[in-house]
Design goal:
By secondary structure, the protein is an all-alpha fold. 83% of the residues lie in helices and 0% in strands.
C-alpha cells in the first residue's frame, strides 16, 4: 500500500551533531546576509522617521506568533527528538494534534486579533490601516508557522531544511527570499513605504513556510487521526504552557526596551535604538540558532542520564557560537559608528554608543552558553520562565524611568543590565539543578559532537 511504503521510506539515520553544526554555519551565513540586507534597505527606504515603526511591528508580530504556538514547537521538538527509526503511531498522532491546535486554531485567532488591534490604533487613511492590519495578521501566522516547522523538522532529524528555516529572523531561506522581495518592491514601488516593506516580508515567508509544512506533514500522513480540537487544545496547553511562558519571557527580554523607545522617545531616537538593537542581535544569533541544533541531543542525553557527556557537548557548542560571535564583535568594538553607517546609512551614526552598550548583554548571553536549552529540555522550563519573568518586570519599571531621565543611552544601559542578569541567573540555575556547566571551554571536544546524534 502507498501509505506503508511511505512509512518505510521516511525514517532516516540521524546525522551527527557535528554535521548539523557544519550545516548550521552555512545556513547562519545565509541568514545573516539576508538579515543585514533587509535592515540596510528598509532603513534607507523609510528613514529615521519610519524605520522604528517597521521594526516594532515586525518584532510584535514575531512575539505574538511565538506566543500563539502555546509552546507546541519546543514541546514537539523535545518529543520528536526521542523517536526511534520506527516511531510509535500514537506519539506521532499526539505531535500532529499539537500542530493542528496551533496551525488551525491559536495562530489564526491571534493573527486576526492582532490585525484588528493594529487597524484600530494606527493612523492614516482607511486603505492604509486595512493593509497594515492584514499585514500584521499574516506576519503573526507566518512567523509562528516558520518556527513550528523548523522545530519539528529539527526534532525529526531533517537538519538541512530545519537549518534553513530556523531563527527569529526566519532563517537563511526566508531571509534571502525577503531580501529579494524588499529590493524589488523598493525599486518598483517606493511610494508604498511601510506597507510595501511589510508586504515584502510576507512574500518572502510564503514559499519556505509552505514547503516546510509539506515536509512535516509527510511524517504522519500514514497515521490515522481524529481531531477533537477542544480536548486537543486542553492537552496541548497543559503539556506545553511553560514553554510558551519561557519563550515569551525570552522574547520580551530582548525587545521590551525597543517598544518602550517607540512609546517614550521621539521617532528619530526610537529608530536609532532600533538600529542599535538590530545589530547587537547579530551577536547572539549564533547561540540562538545553536540552541535548536543542540536541543534534540540535549533531550536524549538527559533522558539517558549522560550528564558528563552532555556538558562536553554543550560547552563545545557554546565555544563554536562564541567564535562566530567574536568575528562580528570585533568591528563593533573597533568602529561602531562606521558599522552603523555601513548598514543603515550616515543618518543612523547616533546609534553607535547604544550599540556598544547593548553589545555587552549580547556578549553575556554567548558567554553563559546554552543554559536555557538545558533547562527546557530537562523539563525545568518553569525555572527559566520564572527568571525571565522577574527580569522583564524589572526591565519595564527601570527602563521607563531610565528612558524618561536619561533618554536613549539610559534605556540601553537598563536593557543591558537586566538582560545580563537574566542570562547569569539561568546559568547558575543549570549548575545548581543539573550539576553541569554550559559556558564555552578552552578544550572543546569535537569528537563528542561527531559521536552524538543531531
Amino acid at each position: 500500500m502507498p501509505s506503508s511504503h511511505r512509512m518505510r521510506r521516511q525514517p532516516r539515520p540521524r546525522a551527527s551533531v557535528l554535521a548539523a553544526l557544519r550545516w548550521f554555519v552555512v545556513s547562519y551565513g545565509l541568514a545573516v546576509t539576508g538579515y543585514v540586507a533587509i535592515n540596510a534597505m528598509v532603513s534607507r527606504w523609510l528613514g529615521l522617521d519610519g524605520f522604528a515603526d517597521f521594526v516594532i511591528i515586525l518584532t510584535v508580530a514575531t512575539g505574538l506568533g511565538q506566543l500563539a504556538l502555546v509552546g507546541v514547537h519546543r514541546g514537539g521538538l523535545r518529543e520528536a527528538a526521542k523517536l526511534t527509526e520506527s516511531p510509535d503511531a500514537e506519539v506521532l498522532a499526539t505531535l500532529r494534534a499539537g500542530v493542528q491546535v496551533a496551525a488551525r486554531g491559536t495562530l489564526p485567532a491571534v493573527g486576526v486579533l492582532s490585525g484588528a488591534v493594529v487597524y484600530a490604533v494606527v493612523g492614516g487613511n482607511e486603505v492604509e490601516r486595512i493593509l497594515l492590519g492584514v499585514s500584521c495578521a499574516l506576519l503573526v501566522v507566518l512567523n509562528g508557522l516558520q518556527k513550528l516547522w523548523a522545530n519539528y523538522l529539527r526534532g525529526f532529524g531533517e537538519i538541512r531544511l530545519a537549518g534553513l528555516l530556523e531563527g527569529r529572523s526566519g532563517g537563511g531561506l526566508v531571509s534571502l527570499c525577503q531580501a529579494v522581495a524588499v529590493l524589488v518592491i523598493w525599486v518598483a514601488f517606493p511610494g508604498t513605504g511601510l506597507v510595501g516593506a511589510l508586504g515584502a516580508l510576507i512574500i518572502g515567508f510564503t514559499l519556505p513556510v509552505l514547503y516546510g509544512g509539506h515536509r512535516v506533514n509527510l511524517r504522519w500522513g500514514h497515521v490515522q487521526f481524529e481531531s477533537h480540537f477542544i480536548s486537543d487544545l486542553r492537552t496541548t496547553v497543559a503539556a506545553n504552557w511553560r514553554f510558551a511562558v519561557n519563550h515569551l519571557g525570552a522574547f520580551l527580554g530582548t525587545n521590551i526596551e525597543l517598544w518602550l523607545a517607540g512609546l517614550l522617545l521621539a521617532s528619530s531616537q526610537a529608530s536609532l535604538f532600533s538600529a542599535a538593537q538590530r545589530i547587537a542581535l547579530l551577536l547572539v544569533i549564533p547561540l540562538i540558532s545553536a540552541q535548536v541544533v543542540f536541543a534534540p541531543v540535549c533531550a536524549r542525553l538527559l533522558a539517558t542520564g549522560e550528564i558528563r557527556r552532555l556538558q562536553s557537548v554543550l560547552r563545545t557548542g557554546a565555544t563554536v557560537a562564541l567564535l562566530v560571535s567574536a568575528v562580528l564583535l570585533t568591528p563593533i568594538l573597533l568602529a561602531p559608528d562606521r558599522v552603523v553607517a555601513l548598514v543603515f546609512g550616515d543618518t543612523f551614526e547616533g546609534a553607535a554608543l547604544p550599540l556598544l552598550i547593548l553589545s555587552i548583554s549580547s556578549v553575556a548571553n554567548v558567554a553563559t552558553g546554552l543554559s536555557g536549552i538545558a533547562l527546557t529540555m530537562s523539563h525545568r522550563e518553569g525555572v527559566a520562565a520564572a527568571i525571565q519573568a522577574a527580569t522583564v518586570v524589572a526591565q519595564v519599571v527601570v527602563g521607563v524611568a531610565a528612558a524618561l531621565v536619561w533618554g536613549l543611552n539610559g534605556l540601553a544601559v537598563s536593557a543591558t543590565t537586566f538582560v545580563t542578569l537574566n542570562y547569569v541567573g539561568q546559568w547558575i540555575a543549570v549548575r545548581r539543578l543539573l550539576g553541569l556547566w554550559t559556558q564555552p571551554t578552552f578544550r572543546p571536544r569535537f569528537g563528542d559532537l561527531r559521536r552524538a546524534e543531531g
